[in-house]
Design goal:
18 helices; mainly alpha; Growth Hormone, Chain: A
Length: about 425
């Protein structure tokens, strides 16, 4: 019988775990590219629709609000239907609003489609689920963080590439009004292509697909039933809700920065659209290595120490994130602002990787529920940040308040520490996989 992978053979797709690893980060990349494709074009869209600061805040909130609900749903769906079918369905359905936003003719229609696009942000939960069931405990933190980090870079790529793509459309003779619309068709088409590839070339776990395994009477790890059972089991675990808060403070801030960075650089420092897109994109592209680095360090400290070493690492990273965010908020010049953004961005991405390095050890009976609830916390954090900016009416003040809140929320990471008895199953699994 096939077993979980004990290593990442990066340049191979010969085994089910490595096919899942590569296709899941690619699908995640495409989804995040689509999710954040509108953000770097907002200065142009703002001018076309005459948007106020409050309306832009509403759009940013809409972009992440529905993801909370969808993330809560897709985790248990993975336990029931398997990550292969769940991801394929999300890619197909998510492509509809991604393509539809290009047809927007008013603030209201743009807001509606932006709300729908938020659903594709749930791709993260499926990505983390799929790598969690494919890789052994000693390497799962690295696998989760690398797949999530490379996929997350889709947000940064969108910041950098969408203004260039729109510029190319304008150079071809398309007007600016049609240029941003034509550019936004690209990520929708990529999602449809990715749906076909994911369904064709992946399977749910090393042993096969859940539906076929259940039909053959083959037990699924942890006795997963999925659906409401998975959610209820996860919801009764206090560590899930503590990590819900910490993930809101790291990934929630990450999403918030993606949505406001470009327009912040244009309005506050006088950047051009392309320069602002490149600056904002550099924050997202940190995910190419920083999130993976957080997971890798978490695996290393766990091998030298224990499961609580992962918890302590997360606490340290979140303190660094809070301090860096305060520096970014109070940076006087554009150069210092970019340096500060990259500094706190490094800690932010690493904290995200360290959080999901803990997820597979919370409760393997309800991996989907655990991954879904904690993942939803990221979007709750982003929505809360959006409302904070709307209430304060000042982006710089919002960033300062967020810096303090992130540092305070780091205490929740320490609250998620494991007792000796709670660590035994994970320690045993690590020994078997070593």
């Amino acid at each position: 019988m096939a077993s979980k992978a004990n290593s990442i053979t990066l340049f191979s797709m010969a085994t089910p775990p490595m096919r899942a690893f590569h296709l899941t980060w690619m699908a995640f990349f495409v989804c995040f590219f689509a999710w954040f494709a509108c953000a770097p074009l907002m200065p142009v869209i703002k001018g076309e629709f005459g948007l106020s600061l409050a309306q832009i805040a509403n759009i940013n909130i809409a972009a992440v609000a529905i993801t909370i609900l969808v993330r809560l749903i897709v985790g248990p769906l993975c336990d029931h239907f398997g990550p292969r079918k769940t991801y394929t369905g999300l890619l197909l359905l998510g492509a509809i609003p991604v393509l539809g936003v290009a047809l927007s003719q008013s603030y209201e229609s743009f807001l509606f489609f932006r709300l729908g696009i938020g659903a594709v942000g749930a791709s993260f939960v499926i990505t983390q689920y799929h790598t969690s069931v494919m890789f052994a405990p000693k390497i799962v933190g690295t696998a989760n963080a690398a797949a999530a980090g490379w996929g997350n870079a889709g947000g940064g790529a969108a910041q950098a590439l969408m203004p260039l793509l729109m510029g190319a459309m304008v150079m071809l003779g398309v007007g600016e009004t049609m240029g941003w619309r034509a550019a936004l068709l690209v990520p929708g088409v990529l999602m449809l292509v990715m749906a076909v590839l994911y369904y064709r070339y992946t399977q749910d776990c090393p042993e096969g697909n859940y539906s076929e395994m259940r039909a053959a009477g083959i037990p699924i790890e942890g006795g997963k039933k999925g659906g409401w059972d998975s959610f209820k089991t996860a919801a009764t675990n206090h560590r899930v809700w503590l990590l819900f808060v910490t993930y809101g403070a790291c990934f929630g801030v990450e999403i918030f920065i993606h949505n406001i960075a470009a327009i912040y650089y244009v309005d506050h420092f006088g950047f051009s659209l392309k320069a602002a897109g490149l600056a904002a994109g550099s924050f997202g592209l940190l995910a190419l290595f920083a999130r993976a680095l957080g997971g890798w360090i978490s695996d290393r400290v766990a091998l030298r120490g224990n499961l609580n070493s992962r918890v302590t690492l997360l606490f340290i990273m979140m303190i660094g994130e809070g301090a860096g965010l305060l520096w970014f908020a109070n940076a006087d010049g554009a150069t210092f602002a970019v340096i500060a953004m990259l500094t706190f961005g490094l800690f932010t991405h690493m904290a995200c990787g360290a959080t999901y390095a803990l997820v597979p050890f919370i409760d393997n009976r309800a991996l989907g529920g655990v991954a879904g609830i904690i993942g939803a916390g990221g979007n709750v954090g982003a929505v809360a940040a959006g409302f904070l900016m709307k209430g304060l009416g000042n982006t710089q003040q919002t960033l300062s308040v967020l810096g303090v809140l992130v540092a305070v929320s780091a205490v929740c990471a320490l609250g998620a520490r494991f007792s000796s008895s709670a660590m035994q199953p994970a320690l045993g699994a690590n020994k078997l996989a070593a």
